[in-house]
Amino acid sequence: MDNILEIKKHWVPLYAGKVACGLFGIAEEHADSYLSLDEKFLKNKHSTFLVRASGKSMEPEIKDEDILVVDRSLKAASGSIVAVFYNGSPLCKQFIKKDDRTYLASFNESYKKIEVTGTDELEIFGVVIGIARDFY
Question: What structural domains and CATH numbers belong to the chain?
Fold first, then answer.
């Protein structure tokens, strides 16, 4: 099992400036520095996992089939996007604490906010720290 957790770092060039959605000459001499996606998304590699999003409740920020990067070691703060089990169902929602109440909210306004009560079962698996999305 430990062999599975051994992850090699892959460094990818991080170019200076920002892209204005136009073309420019991308060449090695334009690289400002290098960025490891492992270090960006795997600060706690033994507590980080990936899970695929399903549905439209978190659109437009999180789309159906996006891959969520979740860190189990982080404590959910109000406003965090979290992966949870709510009454036996796996969900991705925004965690909100307000006036001694807890809510699970969707970004899509077509979905109602869920108030978590004392009779509900809520297990927070971790905080979503990134999203991987295929554009092709």
Answer: 2-41 (no CATH), 45-132 (2.10.109.10)
| Residue 26 per-residue DSSP state | -
Reported as a single tens digit per residue, the pLDDT across 35-79 is 676 777 677 777 888 898 999 999 999 999 898 888 999 999 999
Cα 132 versus chain centre, distance: 8
Residue 108 vs residues 57, 59, 76, 96, 130: alpha-carbon distances, Å: 5, 5, 21, 15, 19
**pLDDT value at 13 more than 90:** no
Four-point Cα dihedral 116, 117, 119, 120, nearest 10: 0
DSSP symbol at 87: T
What pTM, to 2 d.p., does this model score? 0.75
Cross-strand partners of 31:
15
First to last CA, the chain: 33
Name which of 5-9, 32-36, 49-53, 99-103 the model is least confident about: 5-9
Is residue 69 within 8 Å of residue 43, measured between CB atoms? no
Residue for token digits 């430990």?
2
